[in-house]
Write a structure and sequence with these properties.
This protein is α+β, with helices and mostly antiparallel strands. It is built from six helices and five strands. The chain folds into two domains: 100 residues, no CATH class; 45 residues. The termini are far apart.
C-alpha cells in the first residue's frame, strides 16, 4: 500500500498523528504528524534524530519501508484548533532540538495535538529506571552494586522530574 492509499483508507486529516514501530525491533513508538496535501503531495512532519523536519517524498517512502503503522491518533479539536495544531507543527520545523528523553517524537506529537509536550514513554522509562535502581541498591551485597542502584534510581527520578517540568 502506498502513502496516498494509507491516508485515504485511514481518513487522515491535518493534525492527526500516525504511530509507527520500526520493523524487526519495535520497542518504541515513533510519531509522525500528518499535515495534509501541498501541491498534490502528502506532507508529514517528524521530530527525530535529524530534528523536526518535513519529510520529503523520498524520506517518507523510505520511512514507510522501515516502519509499520500501529495506530492512528486522531486530532480531537475543532477546525480552528486543528489549524493552530498544524501551525504549532510548522513553527517547530527545522529545529534541531531532538532529545530522546527531553524532546522526543512523542513530546512533539503531544505538543502539536494538545499544546503540551509530554511523553508516556519517557515517564515509563524514568519510573522503571527508578524502581529497578531501588531494587538493585536494596538487593546488592557490594558497595559497587549499591552505588549502581543508587545512580540508576537518581537517573530515573531526574528523568521524571525533568519531563514533568517540561509539561509546564
Amino acid at each position: 500500500m502506498n502513502i496516498d492509499q494509507f491516508i485515504q483508507i485511514n481518513k487522515l486529516q491535518p493534525g492527526d498523528a500516525v504511530v509507527v514501530k520500526k520493523d524487526n525491533i519495535g520497542l518504541l513508538d515513533h510519531y509522525l504528524i500528518y499535515l495534509g496535501y501541498t501541491f498534490g503531495e502528502p506532507k508529514v512532519i517528524a521530530n527525530y534524530f535529524q530534528g523536526t523536519r518535513l519529510l520529503s517524498s523520498s524520506e517518507l517512502a523510505d520511512f514507510s519501508t522501515r516502519y509499520t503503522p500501529t495506530k492512528i491518533r486522531k486530532f480531537l479539536g475543532n477546525e480552528v484548533q486543528r489549524d493552530a495544531a498544524v501551525n504549532r507543527a510548522l513553527n517547530s520545523c527545522d529545529q534541531n532540538s531532538y532529545h530522546l528523553i527531553l524532546n522526543n517524537c512523542e513530546h512533539f506529537a503531544n505538543y502539536v495535538q494538545l499544546g503540551v509536550p509530554s511523553s508516556k514513554q519517557t515517564t515509563v522509562f524514568g519510573a522503571g529506571m527508578a524502581v529497578t535502581g531501588l531494587a538493585v541498591a536494596a538487593s546488592s551485597k557490594t558497595d559497587t552494586g549499591k552505588g549502581i542502584g543508587t545512580v540508576m534510581t537518581l537517573f530515573g527520578l531526574l528523568t521524571l522530574m525533568i519531563d514533568g517540568n517540561n509539561k509546564k
